[in-house]
Amino acid sequence: MNDAQYVATEPAQMTGAEAAALIKTKQLSCEELARSCLARIAARDAAVKAWLWVDPDYVIRRARELDKLGSTGPLHGLPFGVKDVIDTADYPTTQNSPIYDQTKVGRDAACVAVVRGNGALILGKTDTVEFASGGRKALTRNPYNPAHTPGGSSSGSGAAVGDFQVPFAFGTQTGGSHIRPASFNGIYGMKPTWGTVSREGVRMSSMTLDTVGWYGRSVDDLILVGTAFRIPEDPLTVDVKGLRVGLCRSPVWDVIQPGGQIALETAAKRLMEAGAIVTDLELPEPFTRLHDAHTAIVNTEGGSSFLPEYVNAFDKLAPDLKAKVENVLQITPDRLLAAYSVADACRPMLDAMFGTEFDVILTPSAPGEAPVGLHTTGDAVFNRMWTLLHAPNVGIPVCRGPANLPVGVTLVGKRFADSRLLAIAKAVAPVIDADPTAGLRELWG
Asked: Where are the alpha helices (DSSP H) in 189-257?
């Protein structure tokens, strides 16, 4: 069955942007969409295990209230999953930690408040790696093969959107916790420029790395949520023909796997066939030091972040988180200063590449397909550099790898040029993601 023949028959099968258009014209009610998502969760959550907290009766009451109110913003009636390191007024925030089991903060994190204030319906809390950092893994499974990880730490959010249980979900990224699950679950992900979205009410593990992002099932979905965060739609039309694309295999290309290589080369080939100018981008020497710099920063700042639990709940804190507090890696002040300095030097160098050399950078989202087992969330090796550089990223699905699991690629843009990156992503997505309903056909049947 090809794309032209496939028509969504259930509201939960729609992209968020498609559902928003129908709600706006009164062809779909908020309650109908919410019930469709809840039905999908009821049918699939025993297998996928994406959710920690969902209250169906409460969700229906809120959906009915939104139907009474009429339009309350661009996200009116659109369900969101919220990673359980992000506070919500109506659900507990446990951070998948025994330390905070059943803890209810009673207020929304800033990012949740923004989407709720723009009409969104908070569906529930999604499972996560403990503190989005280490310790316990989520119980979530990859919707395409339950023997494989959905990635992490935004495990439940990625799987819930990928399995058509919810159109949108929040994730966070310190290394590759947001973009990598987008690749593994065959969905679209937006990691905005660091600092674009307030982290108030989000559990921090690294002050200079942690970034809030969101998932959807199309670039239009990412743009729609972006408008709520004051990322305006770029008014300039992007033509794929003549688009200058820097193909960056990155300094860690030696760990690429067949699935990741196939995805990157397939995306590049499709872009070239559409008229884009794809040129190899080999980053200069300072960039080769960014992976070591990320290690120094994430572990040192993690030590500060988890000190309260270390002092007050030592017996319940995971060993790998204790190790950060105890500085087991023996990161010296000089090494930490060097790490901050190389990041500070590389960021403007990356910015300068856009406009003069390239319009966008194309790079792997992960080494390959989702690994087997729930003991792992995969390797963030292809993401850490871009997170440390604070650059905006958009994850786009490409194809299936040798194990028939989804694999995607990442588009990287200039800092604070998120609008332009999204416009480029919208132009190239139909080229890169040549079979956008493949997941729907496979998972829904």
From this structure: 219-228
**Residue 6: pLDDT band by 50, 70, 90 thresholds?**
low
Half-sphere exposure of 151 (CA within 13 A, CB side): 38
Cα–Cα dist 48/31, whole Å: 24
CATH placement of domain 3-286+340-444? 3.90.1300.10
Token digits of residue 125: 């809390």
Q: Would you say 187 and 164 are in contact if contact means Cβ atoms under 8 Å apart? A: no
Say whether 355 sits in a helix, a strand or coil: coil
The confidence score (pLDDT) of residue 330 equals 98
CA distance 124 to 79: 9
Catalytically active residues are: 83, 153, 177
The pLDDT value recorded for residue 1 is 34
The pTM is what? 0.98
**Helices first, then strands: H and E counts in the chain:** 15, 11
Nearest to 261, CA basis, from 361, 392, 382: 382
How many other C-beta atoms can be found within 10 angstroms of the C-beta atom of residue 321? Answer: 22
Q: Which of 96, 90, 102 is nearest to 59 (CA)?
A: 90
Which phi and psi angles does 361 have, rounded to 5°? -110, 135
Task: Give the span between the Cα atoms of 273 and 264, in whole angstroms.
Answer: 14
- Is the pLDDT at 2 greater than 50? The verdict is no
At 212, which helix (H) or strand (E)? strand 211-216
Q: What is the pLDDT of residue 445?
A: 74
278 close to 245: Cβ distance less than 8 angstroms: yes
Give the residue extent of every domain in the chain: 3-286+340-444
**Does residue 219 register a pLDDT over 80?**
yes
What are the DSSP calls for 384-418, one per residue?
Answer: HHHHHTT--EEEEEEEE-TTS-EEEEEEE--TT-H
Peptide bond between residue 153 and the one before it cis (omega within 30 degrees of 0):
yes
Tokens representing 36 are 């469709």
The closest of 175, 154, 205, 196 to 307, measured between CA atoms, is 205
Three-state SS at 150: coil
Q: From residue 378, how far is each of 33, 138, 383, 386, 435 by CA, in Å?
A: 33, 13, 11, 17, 25
- Would you state the pLDDT for residue 334? 98
User: Cβ(56)–Cβ(91) under 8 Å?
Assistant: no
> What average pLDDT score do residues 350-370 get?
97
182 pLDDT higher than 80: yes
